[in-house]
Amino acid sequence: MINILKTKTKTQKNRATEKPHDIKRALFLFVTLLLRTKTKMIVVLIMAALGSVMYTLIPWFMGIAIDNVAALISQFGIGNFTVGQVIEVITEPLLALTAASVITFIVLFIQERIMARVSEESGTYLREMITGKMTRLPLKFYDDVKVGEILSRNSVDIERIAEILVVGFNQFLSAVFNIIIGLGLMLWINPRLTVIVLVLMIVSSYFTVKISQKSQASFAENFETLGVFNSIAEEMFSGNMLIKVFNQQEESFEKIVEANEKQHEAHLKAMFMNYAIYPAIRFLNQIAFIVSAVYGGYLAIQGFLSVGVVQAYLQYVSQVSEPITETSFIINSFQASLASIERVYQIIDMDDAVPDTDQPANISKPKGRIVFKDVAFGYNDSHLIMNAVNFETKPKQMIAIVGPTGAGKTTLINLLMRFYEINSGTISFDGIDIRDMTRKKVRQMFGMVLQDTWLFEGTVADNIAYGNKLATREQIIKACKLAQCHQFIENMPDGYDTVISSEASIVSQGQQQLLTIARTALADPPVLILDEATSNIDTLTEVKIQEAIANLMKGRTSFVIAHRLSTIRNADLILVMDKGNIIETGNHEELMQHDGMYADLYKSQFLTHTDSQVRSPAFAH
Ligand SMILES: Nc1ncnc2c1ncn2[C@@H]1O[C@H](COP(=O)(O)OP(=O)(O)OP(=O)(O)O)[C@@H](O)[C@H]1O
């Protein structure tokens, strides 16, 4: 068993060097996790203790058999007794030895089976907790962390916790019992020798741990340099074009050669540790055994101990010294697992988003009248970006939000849909504070058509019916006609039943936009949020998209995040934003007369965009 763990420890050195920040808390969490399967853990403990007792009895019975044969020799002299006599004296101890071996095997089997179950159940439990938590965390959480990183990190962490439970914890328990029972017997056989042996074991274990820590560092360095090399190589492959365009081939090559050399050196060092240091550790561990063999032999010759007992004693030396070394490896892995547990619980223990109200208000026939009153907001509490935003829309109006990059246009929409909680003020929908509705209800009021399209693996029809799963084929087709995509869907190999992959390679970018417009049309929300497409789509498709959007906007309140001001001349209300706040409001004429930021932006864009005529009718209604 020790070999398995050592191999893992060697190949995962960089992970094994991690330690929890708060060891007490991490230990507490580990124990709490184990206590979820209390009965199983009690059985495991009993099995581990029983296994160690049985394991310890094996050398003892062997010793009795040896002593019995030795007694036969001293009684009759070598060659003066029959095979039958030998069998007679060794049958009993050998039967007992066999029974102890079989019981050890059975007990170990049960112990490992149960721990495998505990590990499986704990892994499933943690995964469920994390997945559940992900749905309850506020959006703020996702701003601070990279979700993919967290998820992969956590799956590695959970795997590591499961691994330590199934391998390390079992070994640890057996090691502890083997040490206690083995040492007890050694002390009983010869206390003086045992004290010397114990001191030797502790000294050699100390050096073993020190050496293995050094080798861990060199393995970690090996992994790190390999990681650096891989990322440079990946950068070179993915940025191959740019490297050539900027004539950086030589510099890139030098960079990769340098990383390769560093990796080579680190690898050599790690291999040296592997092939030279580990035999040295093994030698250190043998010292106690050698001393015991020499001194035990002397005691046997002197007649103080029987040969059988010396033999048993030597086996106990191994039984105790191996787990002592083993335990130091286990402790390293265990620390890494505790660090994993700590990280997993960091997420599980995070504060959930503010819960929905207990008695949510309902709007049976939403009209789309939205009022922002003295709204203040900051992504972090220490820094407000919005101080006092006020505006009011009437149902079915078109509201354009304009402003330079970073002005707060997206933030305003995020607040409207209650993706974030405002710091003060109120946002109301048809006169009801959006905090008095469930988040689900609030979001049902809005349909979004964003620049980033999202299609999933499934048929075209499934993709369109995403927000209204009960829609009939007729309703789907009607929505597609409105969104100007019916024709091209009909031309696809299986029409509405054509399967599109998540990469959507058979659907062009413009077509993807049309499909998502159809999806929104089918969901039929009272309020639309449009992030004006600026992606490189051919003019014809763009005209189609704009016609589709204009169709979609009919009869709904719509918020348009406008990048090209020519498209929003007809907006009922234009909100001009800067540095998080609304600095001007009005329609196009009013704002042009005001001659403020909007007028400046409009004039500068009008001068640079020659294509405004093509686009301007798009948002008219
Ligand atoms: N998740 C976030 N966490 C912290 N700050 C953010 C976050 N999102 C936006 N900000 C900051 O809030 C401010 C407003 O950003 P916002 O994305 O709303 O601007 P925008 O007008 O939509 O910009 P753009 O036109 O470039 O999309 C910016 O200073 C931005 O850096």
**What share of residues are in beta strands?**
5-15%
State the share of residues found in helices, binned by percent. 55-70%
Bound molecules: adenosine-5'-triphosphate
Which stretches of 5+ consecutive residues score pLDDT under 50? Answer: 1-16, 609-621
By DSSP, the count of extended strands is 12
The CATH class label of the domain at 365-445 and 528-621 is Alpha Beta
For the record, give the distance between the C-alpha atoms at the N and C termini, rounded to a whole number: 75 Å
Number of helical stretches of at least 4 residues = 21
CATH architecture of the domain at 365-445 and 528-621: 3-Layer(aba) Sandwich
Per CATH, what is the topology of the domain at 365-445 and 528-621? Rossmann fold
Report the mean per-residue pLDDT as an integer: 83
Strand order of the largest sheet: 6-9-10-3-11-12
Integer-rounded radius of gyration: 37 Å
Question: How does the overall form come out from the CA principal axes?
Answer: elongated
Helix/strand class:
alpha/beta
CATH homologous superfamily label of the domain at 365-445 and 528-621: P-loop containing nucleotide triphosphate hydrolases
Q: For the report, how would you describe the main beta sheet?
A: 6 strands, mixed
Keywords: ATP-binding, Membrane, Nucleotide-binding, Transmembrane, Transmembrane helix, Transport
Protein name: ABC transporter
GO molecular function: ABC-type oligopeptide transporter activity; ATP binding; ATP hydrolysis activity
Subcellular location: Cell membrane
